[in-house]
Design a protein that fits this description.
- It is a single chain.
- The chain is built from eight helices and five strands.
- It is α/β, with parallel strands linked by helices.
- It has a single domain, classed as P-loop containing nucleotide triphosphate hydrolases (Rossmann fold).
- A five-stranded parallel beta sheet has the order 2-3-1-4-5, with helices on both faces.
- α2 packs antiparallel against α3, α3 packs parallel to α5 and α4 packs antiparallel against α5.
- The two termini are about 15 Å apart.
- The structure holds thymidine-5'-diphosphate.
């Protein structure tokens, strides 16, 4: 792998997608070859899967959900992420495998071992070089997502979960931060967009000095 693989994670409403766009712009202006992408939905097949399972109104079995996120990821890794890294690009993905660990593992309750096996299979062992976790108290995140939907933004199936669900998801992310402090960096996402961006730029600059 010649390029660098950076992922953004956070519970819904953490503001990570805005920060991703800002960082991509910043790196592009510094002359880096950047590819931004997302999960689910980073490939044409992934976009169809995304629509199928985030927007359906039928009950989705937790196992089907786990495997659909994995199918989306397998396609994404194989046809988009790995080729871009081989070309030396900086790939920045809005969510990746840690989301499965947090949402399907802690959120839905699949055992860690099962989730890790599925992740390994789907990613072929590809891990990010750096992950930024946009952290924010659950209540604050819910206020943000609720005001978004009041502004007409559509909610998907995962946006309808309870505060308890998101608390489990957040704790799972914090657990990854404890286990892998070098790769998985916590950003305080409760401040203004500029305050959050300053933290992102600091961590990224430090990362590129060392890598
Ligand atoms: P999306 O609209 O992309 O939300 P966000 O902007 O918060 O990333 O919806 C993706 C949803 O899918 C989000 O609620 C997180 C969830 N998700 C999982 O449950 N498992 C996964 O592996 C991934 C990648 C996402």
């Amino acid at each position: 792998m010649r390029g660098k693989f950076i992922t953004f994670e956070g519970i819904d409403g953490s503001g990570k997608s805005t920060q991703l766009r800002m960082l991509a712009g910043e790196l592009f202006s510094r002359g880096f070859d950047v590819l931004t992408t997302m999960e689910p939905g980073g490939t044409p097949l992934g976009r169809r899967l995304r629509k199928a399972f985030l927007e359906t109104e039928e009950n989705v079995s937790p196992l089907a959900e786990l495997l659909l996120f994995a199918a989306d990821r397998a396609q994404h890794v194989n046809f988009l992420i790995k080729p871009a890294l081989a070309e030396g690009k900086i790939v920045i993905s809005d969510r990746y495998a840690d989301a499965t660990f947090a949402y399907q593992g802690a959120g839905r309750g699949f055992p860690e071992k099962t989730v890790n096996q599925v992740i390994k299979l789907a990613t072929d062992g590809l891990k990010p070089n750096l992950t930024l976790f946009f952290d924010l108290p659950v209540e604050k995140a819910l206020l943000r997502t609720n005001s978004r939907s009041a502004n007409g933004e559509q909610k998907n199936r995962m946006d309808l979960e309870t505060a308890e669900f998101y608390a489990r998801v957040r704790n799972a992310y914090l657990k990854i931060a404890e286990k892998e402090p070098k790769r998985f960096r916590i950003i305080d996402a409760s401040g203004s967009t500029d305050e959050v961006q300053a933290q992102v730029v600091e961590i990224i600059s430090e990362f590129f000095k060392k890598n």
